[in-house]
Amino acid sequence: MGLMEFWFWPFAFLAGAVAIIIGLLVFAFWIWMIIDAAKRNFRNDAEKIIWIVIIVLGSWIGALVYLLTIKLTNTKGLVKK
């Protein structure tokens, strides 16, 4: 085994571990946005279903759109109680 191969493996392992951690964080964020959309008060059930479908089919991008358009702009839901 050459010197380059010897030094490559620890960095490859570290890169793989970082990728797994980032993947788990993105997955947890996606699940969190699905749960938030399911619990949030919308004007009607159709709006809730549409947002859940956007999040599920859009993966982390759909979850990010939901976060920026709904969760951060209106913390109590779309319906005033």
Hey, roughly how much beta strand do the residues contain?
under 5%
Largest sheet: none
Beginning-to-end CA distance, first to last residue: 69 Å
The overall strand count is: 0
The helix count comes to 2
Low-confidence stretches: none
Rg (C-alpha, Å): 19 Å
**Alpha-beta content class:** mainly alpha
User: What's the order of the H and E elements?
Assistant: HH
How much helix, percentage-wise, in residues? over 70%
Give the total of domains.
1
Shape: rod-shaped
Quote the average pLDDT. Answer: 86
Account of the 3D structure:
The chain is mostly helical and 81 residues long. The chain has one domain (3-71). The chain has two helices and no strands. The chain has helices spanning 3-39, 45-71. α1 crosses α2 (45-71).
Quick structural overview:
The chain is built from 2 helices and no strands. The chain is mostly helical.
